[in-house]
Amino acid sequence: MEEFSTHTASQVEDGKLSEEKPRFVAFVLGGPGSGKGTQCAKIVETYGLTHLSAGDLLRNEISSMSENGSMILEIIKVGKIVPSEVTVNLIQKAISSTDNHKFLIDGFPRTEENRLAYERIVGADPDLVLFFDCPEEVMVKRIQNRNQGRIDDNDETVKTRLQVFKELSLPVVNYYSEKGILHTINAVGTEDEIFKQVRTVFSAYEPIIR
């Protein structure tokens, strides 16, 4: 009887089995001003992960003038929240469109609804979740001091964003903590001091992400 092989042609090169690297996904969570954006840039530079931002994906889809983008724009224009399924499908599309096997998903999931939609559509948990833990007064000071000219950086809006984060995002943080895949980073200190903690976390995943 002929033996059945589960290896695809793309996995066999020159008579040798070429192991396809497993997909690696890291979520990055933290309040506004926690410094996660700066640290994401350092992670990408150091480990070569593809950086995906849910907000950027939505904005890019709107800019593409696609039918899906027009639908997203209409939802935002009337003040409604974009359905989690739409955001997750954009993330999944972005993951599928690159040959890279390692991804850094920034600022997602923001809510329990986001998390449930991701698990339902993708069918898997992330490999790790980084949570940049920062005192509220430090986050407020950082936001006030940065010179990005963002319209959502005024005092009242900052307070609202921090409150929304506490109410909607902390349950997500707690969920991943209970699952044992959350790594809390003390987000107070210099960029290098904070990144040293990040490197310690990623060191355990070196065989996958290299």
TrEMBL record:
InterPro entries in the cross-refs: Adenylat/UMP-CMP_kin, Adenylat_kinase_CS, P-loop_NTPase, UMP_CMP_kinase
Keyword match Iron-sulfur: no
Catalytic activity: UMP + ATP = UDP + ADP
Protein family according to the UniProt entry: Belongs to the adenylate kinase family.
Entry superkingdom: Eukaryota
CDD domains with a match to the protein in the record: ADK (cd01428)
Enzyme class: transferase
Keywords: ATP-binding, Cytoplasm, Kinase, Nucleotide-binding, Nucleus, Pyrimidine biosynthesis, Transferase
GO CC, any one term: mitochondrion
Name this protein carries in UniProt: adenylate kinase
GO BP annotations, alphabetical order: 'de novo' pyrimidine nucleobase biosynthetic process; pyrimidine nucleotide biosynthetic process
EC number(s) recorded for this UniProt protein: 2.7.4.3
Organism of provenance: Beta vulgaris subsp. vulgaris (Beet)
A molecular-function term among this protein's GO annotations: ATP binding
Gene3D superfamilies documented for this protein: P-loop containing nucleotide triphosphate hydrolases (3.40.50.300)
